[in-house]
Amino acid sequence: MDVRVVDHPLALARLSTMRDARTDNAAFRAALRDLTLMLIYEATRDAPVATAPLHTPVARTTGYRLASPPLLVPVLRAGLGMVDAAQALMPEAQMGFVGLARDEQTHQPVPYMESLPESLAGRPVFVLDPMLATGGSMEHTIRMLTERGATDVTAICVLAAPEGIAHLERSGLPVRVVTGSVDERLNDSAYIVPGLGDAGDRQFGAV
Ligand code: URA
């Protein structure tokens, strides 16, 4: 499985802001937005382009656009903070939504919402979820997508745990991961260490 770690100095700086326990909700959301821009930028580096002739004020030249903009699928609620940046870079991208809660005892994903196009055959999909922890939620989400025919899925994550990456590798699902860091491990509560805490609470406050 292809795992790309975006370790650009600006990405490291935003990630450090997000990790810092003193960062408030607003500053955390701003850093998440900036880091997501960088993750999407890297995730689309090798995307196929379509060309068409265009005229500048000076001359004729070639224009470029993404040949097939990905479907953006934020995983609610923590993925919501990544939507604005992804849409800013790809305004033409369509969106689907997946809602997954986490059972705090079993750490298993509990689905509560699925709003996706009927067919995803031939369509690239970007799943937006800041934390790839156990990999259970991501596997669940990708299975929802592959059941609809998706074969080209990219998980865009701020942080990944080695356990989550190994889980996805074992699943054999058609996914690659673009992340800001592969951290050390999970703790007994399935939080990423050193991590950044609960990505939903850090954005929106504890509810
Ligand atoms: N989800 C989070 O928000 N944080 C973690 O560390 C793990 C899962």
Write out key terms for the chains shown.
207 residues, alpha/beta, Rossmann fold, eight-stranded mixed beta sheet, two-stranded antiparallel sheet, 6 helices, 12 strands, 31% helix, 30% strand, binds uracil, magnesium ion binding
Reconstruct the topology from this structure.
Layout: E1 3-5, H1 9-19, H2 25-43, E2 49-55, E3 60-66, E4 71-76, H3 83-89, E5 97-102, E6 109-115, E7 125-128, E8 131-132, H4 136-146, E9 153-160, H5 162-171, E10 175-182, E11 185-186, E12 192-193, H6 199-204
Helix pairs in contact: 1-2, 2-3
Strand content: 25-35%
CATH topology: Rossmann fold
Low-confidence stretches: none
- Based on CA inertia axes, which overall geometry fits? globular
**Mean pLDDT across every amino acid position:** 96
Radius of gyration, in Å, reads 17 Å
The total count of strands amounts to 12
Main sheet summary: 8 strands, mixed
CATH class (first level) name:
Alpha Beta
Structural class: alpha/beta
Binding site for uracil: 192, 197-199
Cofactor: Mg(2+)
EC number: 2.4.2.9
Keywords: Allosteric enzyme, Glycosyltransferase, GTP-binding, Magnesium, Nucleotide-binding, Transferase
